[in-house]
């Protein structure tokens, strides 16, 4: 099963059952098991719970998926959510969502969209589940926003990055067709 299909399946399988592990932005620590990279697989880093995360070296070099996420976020998401996931008058700050929201809830919202209508709020997030420019890079976008939201990287384009791994390139080619 491709990573794209896996993400779609995860989003369809009631994300609410995973919500117990949500973080508060005020409680972010680089040692937190919900943030810290426990292992690497093919150039992508994961937490102990197999959730994609970032890896920033002491000199500021970011892993390839985080750099890719910066690029993909600014190609697809910043129009509504503002530069660097900082939010806008139109849409909320996604840098906070990647830290505060459970990963599976984040995937669900991106895949299926969300509409909140009420007396104090009227917002619509369109569904991106059929957009390969988002779905093939969703973990990258998530790790970039998580790195920025946790304070591991600042605003703007990361100054240096790890090389793109062969595994990462193969997965990208397979997803994009």
UniProtKB/TrEMBL annotation:
N-terminal signal peptide: 1-25
Family matches, as InterPro entries: C-typ_cyt_methanol_metab-rel (IPR022411), Cyt_c-like_dom (IPR009056), Cyt_c-like_dom_sf (IPR036909)
Gene3D superfamilies recorded: Cytochrome c-like domain
Residue ranges constituting the Cytochrome c domain according to the UniProt record: 37-149
Listed GO MF terms: electron transfer activity; heme binding; metal ion binding; oxidoreductase activity
Keywords: Heme, Iron, Metal-binding, Oxidoreductase, Signal
Enzyme class: oxidoreductase
Protein name: Cytochrome c oxidase polypeptide II
Organism: Salipiger mucosus DSM 16094
């Amino acid at each position: 099963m491709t990573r794209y299909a896996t993400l779609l399946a995860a989003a369809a399988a009631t994300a609410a059952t995973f919500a117990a592990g949500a973080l508060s932005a005020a409680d972010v620590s680089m040692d937190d098991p919900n943030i810290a990279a426990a292992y690497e697989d093919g150039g992508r880093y994961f937490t102990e719970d197999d959730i994609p995360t970032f890896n920033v070296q002491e000199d500021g070099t970011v892993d390839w998926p985080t750099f890719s996420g910066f690029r993909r976020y600014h190609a697809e998401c910043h129009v509504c959510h503002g530069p660097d996931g900082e939010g806008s008058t139109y849409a909320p700050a996604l840098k906070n969502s990647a830290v505060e929201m459970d990963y599976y809830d984040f995937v669900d919202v991106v895949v299926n969209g969300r509409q909140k209508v009420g007396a104090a709020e009227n917002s619509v997030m369109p569904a991106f589940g059929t957009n390969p420019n988002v779905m093939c890079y969703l973990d990258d976008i998530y790790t970039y926003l998580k790195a920025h939201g946790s304070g591991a990287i600042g605003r703007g384009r990361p100054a240096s990055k790890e090389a793109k791994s062969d595994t990462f390139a193969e997965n990208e080619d397979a997803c994009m067709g």
